[in-house]
């Protein structure tokens, strides 16, 4: 089974920090998992960014996951990909990248999750928990009730893969989510918009690790 970190920081296109600056700050805060999420740049610019982020992650022993862009596999030191398309064929993707690459997928329903588990995803990002400015979408918000309903269903189906809550999570939500059976959380806005990025990351780390 692949290593999946309980606290995952997701970089975004934001005015106050570049993706590289976010990666550097997260690593300085102790991050062991960074998901580079940039859907706005052409491949050449993406690879320039990713090579630098990969060097930072390598210096700190941090896993680097890239959102989508699976065609960049092998072109940079990327440990895995997170696929946001909930209809993506993970059997085909696994054949494309091989068994060593980590593959995570986004899900919103129990049906999404069952399929991802059957098709060999290594972990699932389940959301959105709450509204978020960094990744707006029109999916219904799950809230704690959604997670409290879905997690027992997964257990009854003997699906034990890591499930991470994602989408608008605040520090005070973490304890309740962990009690609901979530493996961990993926965070962006609550960290990068905080007065102190590093302190905010470490607060989430302490909350997730309990």
From TrEMBL:
Question: Which pathway does it operate in?
Answer: Cofactor biosynthesis; thiamine diphosphate biosynthesis; thiamine phosphate from 4-amino-2-methyl-5-diphosphomethylpyrimidine and 4-methyl-5-(2-phosphoethyl)-thiazole: step 1/1
State whether keyword Glycosyltransferase applies: no
- Please provide the Gene Ontology terms (biological process) for this protein: thiamine biosynthetic process; thiamine diphosphate biosynthetic process
Catalytic activity annotated for this protein? 2-[(2R,5Z)-2-carboxy-4-methylthiazol-5(2H)-ylidene]ethyl phosphate + 4-amino-2-methyl-5-(diphosphooxymethyl)pyrimidine + 2 H(+) = thiamine phosphate + CO2 + diphosphate; 4-methyl-5-(2-phosphooxyethyl)-thiazole + 4-amino-2-methyl-5-(diphosphooxymethyl)pyrimidine + H(+) = thiamine phosphate + diphosphate; 2-(2-carboxy-4-methylthiazol-5-yl)ethyl phosphate + 4-amino-2-methyl-5-(diphosphooxymethyl)pyrimidine + 2 H(+) = thiamine phosphate + CO2 + diphosphate
Cofactors needed by this protein, per the record, are: Mg(2+)
Start and end residues of each Thiamine phosphate synthase/TenI domain: 11-191
Q: What class of enzyme is it?
A: transferase
Which residues participate in 4-amino-2-methyl-5-(diphosphooxymethyl)pyrimidine binding?
A: 106, 135
Enzyme Commission identifier(s): 2.5.1.3
Query: Pfam families annotated for this entry?
Result: TMP-TENI
- Iron-sulfur keyword on record: no
Citing just one GO molecular function, the answer is:
thiamine-phosphate diphosphorylase activity
Report the cofactor remark: Binds 1 Mg(2+) ion per subunit.
Q: Which residues bind 2-[(2R,5Z)-2-carboxy-4-methylthiazol-5(2H)-ylidene]ethyl phosphate?
A: 132-134, 168
GO CC, any one term: cytoplasm
Q: Which UniProt keywords apply?
A: Magnesium, Metal-binding, Thiamine biosynthesis, Transferase
The record's family statement is:
Belongs to the thiamine-phosphate synthase family.
Q: What the protein does?
A: Condenses 4-methyl-5-(beta-hydroxyethyl)thiazole monophosphate (THZ-P) and 2-methyl-4-amino-5-hydroxymethyl pyrimidine pyrophosphate (HMP-PP) to form thiamine monophosphate (TMP).
What's the protein here called? Thiamine-phosphate synthase
């Amino acid at each position: 089974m692949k290593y999946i970190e309980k606290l995952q920081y997701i970089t975004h296109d934001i005015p106050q920090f570049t993706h590289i600056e976010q990666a550097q700050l997260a690593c300085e805060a102790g991050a062991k998992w960074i998901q580079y999420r940039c859907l706005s740049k052409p491949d050449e610019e993406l690879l320039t960014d990713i090579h630098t982020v990969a060097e930072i992650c390598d210096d700190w022993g941090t896993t680097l996951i890239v959102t989508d862009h699976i065609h960049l596999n092998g072109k940079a030191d990327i440990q895995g990909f997170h696929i946001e398309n909930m209809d993506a064929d993970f059997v085909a993707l696994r054949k494309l990248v091989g068994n060593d690459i980590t593959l995570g997928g986004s899900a919103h329903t129990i049906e999404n999750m069952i399929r991802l588990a059957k098709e060999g995803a290594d972990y699932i990002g389940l959301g959105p928990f709450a509204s978020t400015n960094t990744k707006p979408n029109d999916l219904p918000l799950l809230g704690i009730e959604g997670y409290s309903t879905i997690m027992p269903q997964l257990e009854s189906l003997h699906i034990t893969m890591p499930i991470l809550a994602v989408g608008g999570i605040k520090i005070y939500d973490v304890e309740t989510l962990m009690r609901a059976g979530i493996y961990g959380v993926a965070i962006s806005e609550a960290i990068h918009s905080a007065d102190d990025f590093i302190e905010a990351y470490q607060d989430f780390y302490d909350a997730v690790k309990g």
